[in-house]
Amino acid sequence: TGEAEAARAAMGGSASLLPRELLREYQELTFLSKQEILLAYKRFSELLPKEERENACSARVPKSQILTLPELRANPFQHQICRVFSTSHNGDHSMSFEDFLDMLSVFSDSATSDVKSHYAFRIFDFDDDGTLDRKDLEKLVNCLTGQGEESRLSNAEMEQLIQNILEESDIDKDGTINLSEFQHVVSRSPDFARYGVLQ
């Protein structure tokens, strides 16, 4: 059919096409179009060694390869992003094709601000304990300002900034920011969640 030919062309003539039912399922489960999913499959396959490309759906790409993607190469939260989207059980933060699709889906312009803010929160939650505490906020600020001597904040500046963030965001005054507090701040200032994390 013409549709299959178009799909094959989009895949660069590759024989290892995504099965149609999987393609349909991925369209329902992500914010991506059919073309974007096919392109994602092609990009994911190209990160694999040649002998594994036939079975890209069941392969995992190492984190070192994921970090070569243009979307992540200059992102200060690249390691956190791999941690949040990886379903690897051995802590190597490798990605399956479905992990990769989830990541691209959240990065997509079509993703809702609720979804983006949920993942931004998880990316900013460095110790993965479900809240943003002072340590998380300090790491967040350091990621955003860079680690260079000239851009690093003094202890007093850091303390003042964290105090300001908590005053603005910590509604129940428990010294940390939970997901609903974070989403409340984001709803008033949508750019906050993006911060270049999920562009």
TrEMBL record:
Pfam short name (any one): EF-hand_7
Gene Ontology terms for molecular function: calcium ion binding; magnesium ion binding
Entry annotated with the keyword Disulfide bond: no
Alphabetically ordered keywords of this record: Calcium, Magnesium, Metal-binding, Repeat
InterPro entries, per the entry: CIBP, EF-hand-dom_pair, EF_Hand_1_Ca_BS, EF_hand_dom
Residue span(s) of domain EF-hand: 112-147, 157-192
Statement: the UniProt record of this protein carries the keyword 4Fe-4S: no
Name recorded for this polypeptide: CIB1 protein
Source organism per UniProt: Uria aalge
Lineage: Eukaryota, Metazoa, Chordata, Craniata, Vertebrata
